[in-house]
Amino acid sequence: MPSTIHTLGFPRIGAQRELKFALEQYWRKEISLQALEATGAELRQRHWQAQRDAGLDLVTVGDFAFYDHMLNHIQWLGCEPARFGFDGAEADLLRAFAMARGVAQEDGAAEEGGTFALEMTKWFDTNYHYLVPEFHPDTRFAGQADRLLAEVEQAQALGHKVKVVLVGPLSFLWLGKEKQAGFDRFKLLDDLLGAYERILARLAERGVEWVQLDEPILGLDLPDAWRHAFERAYWQLARSAPRILLASYFSPLDDNLRMACQLPVAGLHVDAVRAPAELLRVADWLAAPHKVLSVGIVDGRNVWRTDLDAALARLREVAAKHKGELWLAPSCSLLHVPISLESEERLDPELRSWLAFAQEKLAELGLLRAALDLGGQLPAAQQSAWDSARAALQSRRSSTRVHREEVARRIVSSVPGDDQRASAFAVRQAAQRAHLKLPLLPSTTIGSFPQTPAIRAARAALRKRALTEEAYRTRMQEEIRDVVRRQEALGLDVLVHGEAERNDMVEYFGEQLDGYAFTANGWVQSYGSRCVKPPVIYGDVLRRAPMTVAWTQYAQSLTPRWMKGMLTGPVTMLQWSFVRDDQPRALTCEQIAWAIRDEVVDLEKAGIAIIQIDEPAFREGLPLRRAGWRSYLDQAARAFRISASGVRDETQIHTHMCYSEFNDILPDIAALDADVITIETSRSDMELLRGFGDFHYPNEIGPGVYDIHSPRVPEAQEMERLLRKAATVVPVERLWVNPDCGLKTRGWPETEAALSRMVQAAQRLRTELGGAAAGEREREPALIA
């Protein structure tokens, strides 16, 4: 039986980030809503054609989103939160953007101060952020999905055979949050299933034969009630006319394997990259010859070429066991990789030959299908492509640029205690308070300030060699002077240099480390219009020279206030890169940690007394199955401590984490032993902080008091309310005051307005609590050692 090839999803942003730029133009009111819609239609058409050109049997519809696919489902299922006050007359995109970005008072929100955006958090263990559905006892579901149906009609009109993708009902419900104490969102399942039935029926009316229902929570440790609900839910949905392909990815099915195989669906997709050992078991349990087995054989999460010979051998084993249809696909949606290598002339030919982006991965599927169906007797052109892939794999395995002897020596020579500060936190805290003399509730920011068009233009000019290194340095120093002046005028207690010279918090450091490579156009979506260009870690990691010391030292010379050194931590450097797959990830992480440690030590030598090592991706690397947590958490915490433990007691180490749930790993966050942690808490109305209080988190903490991902500027009273709420769970003498995250994506007017109100809130509470006089200090620049 000939095999079928398909993809679970395709990148949305466009080869040149067309979606990002159109969104931002629309938000700046430079283009109309109709023009934005036209960009979306053109991108969908282009991406479907790319799938068809690659020989895919079905094009995937429903994976496109102007902001986020979970936000799409909130609208398609008719469960927009009532707090936004929509009357139904608004265009659906206007409602979507209101939910994603919040609504300022002047934009028409009914209540004073506007409406805050939906909470945002990480999509499983990826760096993609989704908007969290909100559930109440009175939440009801409609199931209209008019926009989805229009996209189906667009694809059909272009002559494509369509497979629609939806997030499955149990995953959608699981990924949301109850917004009323004591309410269990699981009670909404029956009504939600009715909405899915209505959508499936409408798709059937339009001739859709296949619907892919993504249930990635099948890779989690689920409560019994949720596990048992799958059978009931899918018996109900199976009555609809389209055939259902149930898709799981990112993690082994483990104890859910037998249940998933026996559900009344037409097919099952499994991730053979993350769970290769389960593949033959799935083939055994999926015994019914009428059921499709879709094998995620090409890595949808990383950029390395597939070992085609190994993949083909695995597929042949499966084909020998499974008597039904065999489909080949990437392991998950290709949302998580760049679109194409076509514009990557920046990469040297050898390294480029080791890589495969989304379009190249589709081509790999075509080669694997041909080899499987033809018994290995490939036509000449395909045999040539196969031989090239084989040669590239051998080239990578034998390349001398991958391994560095000095890096291996350093890892081997490390001794117990290398990952520990000299003194316990209480001793360090006393030394830091005596040295830094900061007020109660010290105010600061997370690190970055607005990246203005002038900054980006200067960086582009440097890249094109239209600006010399010296001229660029002068311009960036001007930006730093401006940022320092603004922060002093605002009254912030601990300043940052603003990171004007940095393109990205990972890329900037990776460009200065051996073992990293960089693409010209390897963009992937993080959230909304925010795109990142992850570096590629291809070899051993080594710091050649100081990376930030000169910039930070210059900024400190401009002010008597303390200046934070800003670094990206080893776990985030790992997680937000495409990581080599030829050695354990923990070893690569430790290599990065030693490189960051060298930078921390050099910053201290340069007189920088506060150093922030950001780890927003710390939880992101957590295995989805709890069985793997202990090993990961021990390794990740050790890597952070290696990076932070080379300094004296009086040097204060900060870290920052954002948009994640922390309560179930608080002991491990405490094990990082950072002197100060700053976290995102405003979108959850300080809900995330409560766990830190219940845990009695021992060190200092800065809960974010306003959401930087929204253009909305809250009033000082709102921030003060959040601070008061924070002070009920964390002793006020251990609280810091800061935004949720960096301010790179915001404009200066809203940034200064928000920070001014933040400082006001801190000063009011500080005065009320009597800490102002005791802690205030005016220091001369000469006192900064």
Explain this structure to me?
The protein is α/β, with parallel strands linked by helices. The protein folds into two domains: 4-396, TIM Barrel (Alpha-Beta Barrel); 430-452 and 490-783, TIM Barrel (Alpha-Beta Barrel), CATH 3.20.20.210. The protein is 41% helix and 12% strand. The chain is built from 28 helices and 22 strands. The protein has an eight-stranded parallel β-sheet. It has a six-stranded parallel β-sheet with strand order 13-18-19-20-21-22. A two-stranded antiparallel ribbon has the order 3-4. Strand 21, helix 25 (687-695) and strand 22 form a beta-alpha-beta unit. Helix 1 packs antiparallel against helix 2 (33-53) and helix 11 crosses helix 13. The longest helix is centred in the middle third of the chain and has 22 residues, at 469-490. The termini are far apart.
Task: Give keywords.
785 residues; alpha/beta; TIM Barrel; 8-stranded parallel sheet; 6-stranded parallel sheet; 28 helices; 41% helix; disordered C terminus
Report Rg. 26 Å
Backbone shape: globular
What is the straight-line distance between the termini? Answer: 75 Å
Continuous helix count: 28
Q: Into how many domains do the coordinates divide?
A: 2
CATH architecture of the largest domain: Alpha-Beta Barrel
**What is the CATH topology classification name of the largest domain?**
TIM Barrel
Low-confidence stretches: 107-113, 771-785
Number of strands: 22
Please give the CATH class of the largest domain.
Alpha Beta
With strands numbered from the N-terminus, the spatial order across the biggest sheet is: 1-12-11-10-9-8-6-2
The major sheet is characterized as: 8 strands, parallel
Percentage of residues in DSSP E strands? 5-15%
Average pLDDT rating: 93
Give the helix level as a range of percent: 40-55%
Output the structural class.
Answer: alpha/beta
